[in-house]
Design a protein that fits this description.
Layout (H helix, E strand, L loop, with lengths): L7 E7 L8 E7 L7 E11 L1 H8 L15 E9 L11 E5 L8 E5 L3 E3 L6 H5 L2 H14 L7 E4 L5 H12 L3 E6 L2 H9 L4 E4 L5 H8 L5 E6 L5 H8 E9 L13 H6 L2 E4 L7 H14 L1 H5 L7 E6 L3 H9 L6 E5 L2
Parallel strand pairs: 8-9, 8-11, 9-10, 11-12, 12-13, 14-15
Antiparallel strand pairs: 1-2, 3-4, 3-6, 3-15, 4-5, 5-7
Helix pairs in contact: 3-4, 3-9, 6-7
This protein binds NADP nicotinamide-adenine-dinucleotide phosphate (NAP).
Length: about 325
């Protein structure tokens, strides 16, 4: 197998910070797998909002990560580094990477790769890691969502939102979500949301009050920030938890933090990309144990919005930036 690996590959480069057209196909050397790493021939790569932020110059790759965008891939293992024990050349995997996904080849530590769930092709498999790792950690580990609790997720039609709705619903939560159009709300309900609020026409705090008999929700996953910070405090139940994963409407807003004290709220947050390989390996193990069986049964599954060829990554970014996507956009690297 190894002698078929070329020395150069096509990769999408961010030629300068800017709009989607700064993404251009270029030539790079094929990386070599280091100790514990797999070299993957990438067949598909997921597109995520953090890639858009990176392209705009707002989210630089962490130290040691590739400057090529792309946080998740699916493909074939074509070479292995020293000390690899789990995977063999020829196996099909899906993997979380800290960069470098928009390319024909990409390295990943074997502990951050998972076997492609039975019945899934490369396109669907590439749409799993980034949102499943993020949602698992923030909703279930950090947020502690329990069966029977009430859960509010903003941006329900996003890659993150579609995953959070399905997983929370599969684990027995009552799910309320917000989205920016009736079409997006309908999609969220089909995925299992008990109530979807078109935030352009309805106040989500009032909708939550109505849906929970005035009690508020136990857990909120928020990517919006801005004035949602205080409104989340209003929508949360006493002793409620709020997990912040982004600030699409701004990180700073006047907020009455006395509501935190009065309601005994917990407001936390995290970012996945900077975490260590070992930390991500821990999430991978939990996902394989608790979520992979649900994926195989299709009780949860990635929602594919659109697929573009690798060299049209700019179109994928344009679509995401315009907020047109419902679920995941994927690049076909075959
Ligand atoms: N912390 C972490 O570890 C982590 C990991 C992955 C992703 N994230 C973050 O999670 C968020 C979702 O990621 P994704 O890949 O699922 O993105 P996505 O599919 O592009 O979704 C973004 C969603 O946010 C909603 N939105 C609300 N206010 C917005 C605004 N001012 N500008 C743009 N969109 C707005 C949009 O829906 P409406 O039309 O309904 O407004 C859209 O569906 C991103 O902010 C991303 O950076 C965080």
């Amino acid at each position: 197998m190894a002698d078929k690996i070329p020395t150069t590959m096509t990769a999408i480069e961010i030629t300068q910070p800017g709009g989607p057209l700064v993404l251009k196909a270029g030539k790079r050397g094929v990386p070599e797998p280091e100790t514990g790493e797999l070299l993957i021939q990438v067949r598909a790569a997921g597109v995520n909002r953090p890639d858009v932020l990176q392209r705009q110059g707002h989210y630089p790759p962490p130290a040691g990560a590739s400057d090529i965008p792309g946080l998740e891939i699916a493909g074939d293992v074509v070479a292995i580094g020293e000390g690899v024990t789990r995977f063999r050349i020829g196996e099909r995997v899906t993997a979380l990477v800290s960069g470098g996904g928009y390319a024909q080849y990409c390295n990943v530590h074997e502990t951050n790769a998972l076997p492609i769930p039975a019945g899934y092709g490369f396109i669907e498999a590439a749409a799993i890691p980034e949102t499943y790792f993020t949602v698992w950690h923030n909703v279930f580990e950090r947020g502690g969502l329990q069966n029977g609790e009430t859960f509010l997720v903003h941006g329900g039609s996003s890659g993150i939102g579609t995953t959070a709705i399905q997983l929370a619903s599969a684990f027995g939560a009552y799910v309320i979500t917000t989205a920016g159009s009736d079409e997006k709300c309908e999609a969220c309900v089909k995925l299992g949301a008990n109530r979807a609020v078109n935030y352009r026409h309805e106040d989500f705090v009032e909708a939550v009050e109505d849906a929970t008999g005035g009690k508020g929700v136990d857990l909120i996953l928020d990517m919006v920030g801005g004035d949602y910070i205080e409104r989340n405090y209003d929508a949360a139940a006493v002793d409620g938890r709020i997990v912040q994963i982004a600030f699409l409407n701004g990180a700073k807003a006047p907020t009455d933090v006395s509501k935190l004290m009065v309601k005994r709220l917990t407001h936390t947050g995290s970012t996945l990309r900077v975490r260590s390989v070992d930390f991500k390996a821990g999430i991978a193990r939990e996902l394989e144990r608790k979520v992979w069986p649900l994926l195989v049964e299709r009780r949860v599954a990635p929602v594919i919005d659109m697929v573009y060829p690798l060299h049209e990554a700019w179109r994928a970014h344009e679509r995401m930036e315009d907020g047109q996507n419902i679920g995941k956009i994927v690049l076909d690297v075959s």
